[in-house]
Amino acid sequence: MASIPPQRRGARYVIDIDELDRIPASEREALRRVASRHAFRATEYYLDLIDWNDPDDPIRRIIIPRPDELSDWGRMDASNEAAVTVLPGVQHKYPHTALLLCNRVCGGHCRYCFRKRIFIQDADEIAFDVTEGINYIASHPEITNVLLTGGDPLMLPTARLVDIWERLSRIPHVGIIRVGTRMPVFQPWRILDDDELLAAISRISTPQRRLYFITHFDHPRELTGPATAAVDALLRAGAVCANQNPLVRGVNDDPVVLAELFRRLSFAGCAPYYVFQMRPTTGNKPYAVPIVRAFHIFEAAKRHVSGLAKRARFTMSHATGKVEVLIVDRDFIYLRYHRARDPLLDGRVLLFHRDDSAFWLDDLTPVAGRGYPAIPAEQPDLLEAGPE
Q: CB within 10 Å: which end of the chain, N or C, has fewer?
């Protein structure tokens, strides 16, 4: 029998901590306890990117459990997604955008995942049959954007994924179908070896209705040859690509590293889209960076790159909306609702006292009359002094 090429061996999924024989057995025992609470999963390909001689290797921090994940910091549903879940597997937080949670499996489990609850609880948030969700979208003409997420939609069989795309593409008011995926990072051959998938993208992504692939690269070393080839295959098939990622302690909380990520993403044709403040999800404390420090890292990184590489916005996905961090000065933090759950708050500027220890919007103290959600919609003049 012919030997399997190395890249195909890398497609195998690893879910047992004891298979990580490059970690001493004495350490694996502690990691098993973490993985019993916050699930572990990786591909051989991704594990091979780790420098196992470096205990602080950023790829290792992304994928290998740490004992300090067992702290009680945070909540499982840090952004209260339950409050905007209108049907099983359907979230409708913003008027024009709906989320279909169509899969509870990922190629790998990032240690800081904000939706890790779906890997350790019953999958009542996921709809394996999306018919009801598609009917909901069809009956709401204000929805122009649909995001497929979960889990990773590219873990679905191609035929099932394409069926979802085709059903959504028949809804006249849906102009964008987005796929949130980390498969170019964890297993690029899922894309490179699937002619059926690429043909479907070419058929469905048209000048009238586009398929967007929202990738999730965290560190420049994830942009390997196969990974960038997978992005290129998506682009050549007619998809549009953009990247979003959290700011992760020990991974990309360095302006030089983050600038290199932005630069290489722009070279690959995958525009930086959002950089997120780490959500205060249970187990995420080892990976969180305070807001003020994260903002300064983000701004410093943008100063190192050209315009096309500095398009990302630094935001928090708060329960009340997507809040962009605009300015941090000596005394205050200025924020703006980039998107708000209440449409009347869209674009509103918020003002909080600077707090260098704060990790989340709820940790900040608002300046009287300028916090959320106390700014009355009928008094937009209150916001005029805010930076635009």
A: N
Q: Is 263 helix (H, G, I), strand (E, B) or coil?
A: helix
Pairing of strands 145-150, 176-180: parallel
My answer on whether 26 and 136 are in the same domain is: no
CB 287 within 8 A of CB 251: yes
Q: DSSP readout, 11-62?
A: T-EE--GGG-TTS-HHHHHHHHHHHTTS---EEHHHHTTS-TT-TT-HHHHH
Rg (CA), the chain: 21
State the Cα–Cα distance between residues 76 and 62, nearest whole angstrom.
19
The total number of structural domains that make up the chain: 3
Alpha-carbon 149 to chain mean position? 10
Q: Please give the Cα distance from 97 to 340 (Å, whole number).
A: 12
Question: Residue 131 sits in a domain of what CATH number?
Answer: 3.20.20.70
| 69 touches 118 (CB < 8 A) | no
| Token reading at 277 | 């403040």
Q: What value does the mean pLDDT of the chain take?
A: 92
Taking alpha carbons only, the member of 176, 194, 251, 177 closest to residue 217 is 251
The pLDDT tens digits of the residues spanning 59-84 come to 999 999 999 999 989 999 999 999 99
Q: 317 is written with which tokens?
A: 């996905």
Q: Give the pLDDT confidence of 93-135 residue by residue, as tens digits.
A: 999 999 999 999 999 999 999 999 998 766 578 888 999 999 9
**Taking the CA of residue 388 as centre, how many other CA atoms within 13 Å lie in the half-sphere pointing to its CB?**
5
